[in-house]
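INPUT
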Amino acid sequence: MEVREIIDYLKSYDGKPLKLMEVCGTHTAAIFKNGIRDLISPKIKLISGPGCPVCVTPTAYIDACTAFAKTEGHELLTFGDMMKVPGTGGSLSENKTSANVSIMYSPFEAIEKAKADPDKVIGIAAVGFETTVPAYALMLREARKQGVTNIRLITALKTVLPALEWICENQNDVDGFICPGHVSVITGVHVYDEMAAKYGKPFVVAGFEAEHILGCIYRIVRQIEAGESLSENLYRNAVRDDGNAKALAVMNEVFETGPAVWRGLGEIPDSGLYLKDEYAQYDAGSRGLSEDMELPAACRCGDVIVGRINPDQCPMFGNGCSPIHPYGPCMVSAEGSCGIWYRNVH
Amino acid sequence: MKITMAHGSGGQSSAQLMSDIFGKYFNNEILGRMEDAAVLHVGGSPDGETAASCAPARIACSTDSFVVTPLEFRGGDIGKLCVCGTVNDLLMMGAVPKYLTCGFILEEGLEVDLLDRLVASMAKQAREAGVMIVAGDTKVVEGNGGLYINTTGIGEIPAGRDVSSANGRPGDVILVSGNLGDHHACILSHRMEISNDITSDCAALNDVVDALFAAGLHVHTMRDVTRGGLGTVINEIAGSSGVKIELEEEAIPVHADVRGFADILGLDPLYMGNEGKMIAVVPAEEAEHALEVMRSTEHGKDAAIIGQIMEGSGAFLRTRLGATRRFDVLYGEGLPRIC
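OUTPUT
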C-alpha cells in the first residue's frame, strides 16, 4: 500500500476516538520530526509511553552516580543524556568541577581506560532498556576474560515488557501500542503475543521512518476496526519474530531480573536487570536505589510518563520546567516526551 | 548556578547568558541589535550636522574566540578557522573585510612546530580573504599543549548596502549556500576516531557575498550558519524581522555521507554546526537569479532555495510527506568546542 493511501485513510478516519501509545522515546521524536500528528485524523490521539530509560530513573540513582564520581581515584563514564538529570545535590553536569565524569560513546571505552590506569576505578552509569543491555554484558564478559578488575557498573537497566503490562493493568484506556523497534530487535515480537490476547489490544512493532510509523498506526486502526488484537511485526528488516538469540543469551549469562522502581509507576517486579553473582565483583551497589526526590507539587511527571496527560497539560511545562531548567528527567532527555514537546510545540 | 558546556552551544542557553549577564551591563543600541557584526558610524560630526575633517562612513566590527579541538582537522585547522569565522561575520553585514587583530592563548607544552603550521595556515587564509593582520597579543598559561585564538575584524560597508537580520520581509525567499553539517560531522568523527571522508566546510565566503552584490541583487539578510545550526539561525531571523519562516525539508541540502553519519548518531542536520555556509534572504523575484549567482561561485556551488518568509511568527518545516511542524532554536549542549 502506498504511503499516500495510508495518509488519506488515517486523515479521513472518522470512527471511534482512539488512543495509541508510542512506547519508545525515539518514536516520539520521529513522530514530531515528521509531523505525523498533522497527517492523521484528530480522532487518533498519540500518547507517549515510558520508553525513555533516562526518564524513569529515580533520583537515588543519580545521587549514587555523583557519589561514585566524587570518590578519590574514581572516574564515571556515562552517555550524554544522563549528565543533566537533577539529583538531590544537583546533576552530574553541575557537579563536574568536583566529580570525575566523562561522556562515553561505547561501554567498551571502560576496558581501555581501566587497562591504561589500573589504580583507578572506572565506573559506568549503565542506564537503558534491552537495546543497550547486551553491550554491557559483552563488555563485562570481555573484561573478565582479560582479567580487568577495576571496572564497576552502577546499573539502572530495565526491561520494557513489565512496564507495558503495568500500563495495561492500571490504565486500561490505551487502545493499541506502537511497540519499540530497537527493543524488539532483541526481544522479538512473540513476547507481545500473550499481552495482545490477554488485554485485547493490538501490539505492532515499527521502525523509525515516517512511513514505518504511519504504516504501524494504520495496522493498529485496521485491527481495531476488524475487532482483532494481534502482535504484528512491521519492521521485518531489523526485527526477527524470535528476537536475537545471541544477545538474549549473553544478557542472561550476565544479568538476572529483580524489582525496579520506575519514576511515575513505582516498583515493578522483575523489571530491573542486575548483575548475577558471578559478576557481582563488577557491581557498585545498584540494587535498592529506589528513593525519588520529592518533586514540586505541581509536577505531573508520573502522569506524563504513563501517557495520562500530554506534557503541555502539566502546569509546570514551560512554567518553571524547561530543557534549560528541568525538574523531571522527561524534560532533560533528548528522548523524553516533555523535552520533545517543548522543543517542537512550545 | 554554574556555567555548563550548554552555555557555549550557540543555542538557547548561550542567548540566555548573553541577555542575563552581558546584555544587562553592556547594553547599548549597537550591541542590542545582536547582529553577526556591529555596524559603526564613523567620521562626520556626532550630531549629524556639518562634516568634520573626514567623510562619514560605516564600518563593521566583530570579535570571535576559537577553541576547537582537535587543532587540525580534515579541511582546516584552528588557524584557518579563526580567520574565516571573523571574516564571515563581517561579510554577513555586507562589509568588505579589511583588518584583523589576533590574541593567542597558548598552553604550556604546545609544540612549536604545530604552532608554526597553524600560524602559516592563518596567514595564507588571511591573504586569500583579503584581510591584513595588524595587531596581536600572546599569553601563555599552564595546561596541556592547547591553544585558543581570538580574532577581531574590521570591514568597510560600501554605501547603499543595508543588510540586517531584521530586514526579512514577507514574500522574501531564503537560500543556503551549500550542504549542512559538514564541519560538525568532521569534528565529531575526529573525536570519535571514526574514519570517513567527511571534510569540514571551513571557508571564507568572500566569493559568494561579492558575487551577490556584483550581480546587483537586493540582499535583505545574510547570516553564516555556525554553532546552533540552521534551525537556530532561522528562528533568530524570524524573531528579529518579526515574520514567519517556512522551510521545505526536502530542499535543505545535506551530503549523503553526513546524512548517514547523523542518522547513526541521532543528530539532526538542522542543528549541526558549519563553518563555511551562509543563508541569504532576497526578494522573491530575485530568487532564481540569486541561486544562479551563488552556484557560480566555489563556496556556493551546492546552493539551494530552501524556504520563504510569510506574515506571522515562528519557524516551520514542511516535511517530506507534507506535514508542517514548528522547529525551535537548539536546546542543550550541541557539540562542545566545535569552533
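end of record. The longest strand of chain B covers residues 96-107.
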